[in-house]
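Support request, priority: normal
Reporter: lab tech (M.K.)
Component: structure prediction queue

Hi team, I submitted a job for Type IV leader peptidase family protein from Roseovarius aestuarii yesterday, and the status page still shows it as pending. I've pasted the exact input below so you can check whether something in the sequence is tripping the parser. The sequence length should be 155 residues. Please let me know if I need to resubmit or if it's stuck on your end.
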Amino acid sequence: MVALPLFLALPIMIAAGFTDLRQLRIPNFLVMLALILFVLTCPLLPLAEIQTRLLAGIVTLAVGFGLFCLGVWGGGDAKLLPALVIFIPGQSLTLFAYILSASILIGTLSIITYRKVGLNGPAEWVGAHASGRFPMGISIAMAGIAHAVALTFFW
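Reply from support: The job had stalled in the queue. We restarted it manually and it finished. Here are the results:
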């Protein structure tokens, strides 16, 4: 039951990742939609679990804001990751951190390879072609999906 909110949030994360790849931006309405979904699914969770998730989300937001201020992350990435973290069950936050790290590595290597090889993908995919910029929303969405799969089959 504690993983159900994560599964409900996956379409939002997929939409955010796809939008980030196409436009190098993550719309605020997707982040707000995720927050509304979390509030609606809170009655399914124990109070201690809600507190753990909110604390993890606040810490992630603070770190993301710091990275945004340093110019490392975009604003959408700094908002999307905490919106995903509040859906991660407290006992699997460490697993999620590993999955997120692997997703960022895979996403970065994929974009670098795509750009180096010079593949002619759709021109409207700004995130795939913008030199010096990386659509982190793809990796965040990929981590959410991979974590949901891990919780389903391996946890």
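Residues 19 and 143 are 16 Å apart (CA to CA). Residues 4-153 form one domain. Let us know if anything else looks off. Ticket resolved.
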